[in-house]
């Protein structure tokens, strides 16, 4: 049984009169709630995927705005081409939908390393690019920051149990470890710091520009996401991590 037919009301014994039927036939057919219309060459699988994407996009905005507890399934359904019935069919429930939203948000900030790794790239240049990319990622995915803020307030209960989130975070750290290892082998990076600390510095400073934007603007009159300020903060992240990691110049 499909999700659309599962909740359809039973037919009544009373039938339409010929006049009613003729009048109804002249009306344009309405798309059923919670169902995407097939477009062009879209097959059923493509429609299902598009429906899930619609729901995830609306749910991301709702959870990022309200947090898990206050988020409304009705509000999410109202912002999509899906009904609440379809939402439960695709994701099972509010908890499962939230997990899918959080994991998808982490996936969007996953670092994608070039296929040839660090070939032809100086380690310090690679570190500089890593920091720039991380900062830009947070700027481009501000809903991720808000989702993580709410998740932290709830004790990171979902994130603790998600293997996908753990794997993505480990991949992001591993990319930095590869860069630092190359830098140390080349003698351009210090050996007396933990890569984890460097990673948390990049993430923390980039995250802070989004998470604390409103309070900093209220207290200091500085909009950290304004064009000028964002550029300055981006450069600050790069300069700090590169100077922290750089090996001391050799004495002549």
UniProtKB/TrEMBL annotation:
Residues of the HTH tetR-type domain: 49-109
Region of interest (Disordered), residue spans: 1-39
Recorded superkingdom: Bacteria
Keyword 4Fe-4S attributed: no
Pfam families assigned: TetR_C_29, TetR_N
GO MF annotation list: DNA binding
Transmembrane segments: none
Entry protein name: TetR family transcriptional regulator
Organism field: Pseudaquabacterium pictum
Lineage summary: Bacteria, Pseudomonadati, Pseudomonadota, Betaproteobacteria, Burkholderiales
């Amino acid at each position: 049984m499909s999700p659309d037919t599962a909740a359809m009301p039973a037919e009544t014994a009373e039938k339409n009169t010929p006049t009613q039927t003729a009048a109804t036939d002249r009306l344009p057919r309405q798309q059923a709630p919670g169902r995407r219309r097939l477009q062009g060459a879209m097959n059923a699988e493509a429609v299902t995927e598009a429906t899930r994407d619609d729901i995830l996009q609306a749910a991301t905005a709702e959870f990022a705005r309200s947090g898990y507890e206050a988020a409304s399934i009705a509000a999410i359904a109202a912002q999509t081409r899906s009904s609440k019935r379809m939402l439960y069919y695709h994701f099972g429930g509010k908890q499962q939908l939230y997990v899918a939203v959080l994991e998808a948000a982490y996936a969007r900030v996953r670092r994608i390393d070039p296929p040839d790794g660090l070939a032809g790239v100086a380690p310090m240049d690679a570190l500089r690019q890593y920091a720039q990319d991380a900062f830009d990622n947070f700027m481009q995915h501000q809903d991720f920051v808000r989702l993580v803020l709410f998740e932290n307030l709830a004790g990171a209960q979902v994130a603790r149990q998600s293997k996908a989130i753990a794997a993505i975070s480990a991949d992001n750290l591993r990319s930095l470890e590869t860069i630092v290892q190359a830098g140390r082998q080349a003698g351009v990076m210090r050996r007396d710091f933990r890569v984890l600390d460097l990673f948390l510095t990049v993430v923390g400073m980039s995250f802070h520009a989004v998470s604390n934007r409103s309070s900093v603007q209220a207290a200091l009159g500085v909009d950290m996401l304004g064009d000028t300020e964002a550029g300055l903060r981006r450069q600050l992240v790069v300069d700090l991590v590169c100077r922290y990691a750089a090996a001391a110049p050799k004495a002549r």
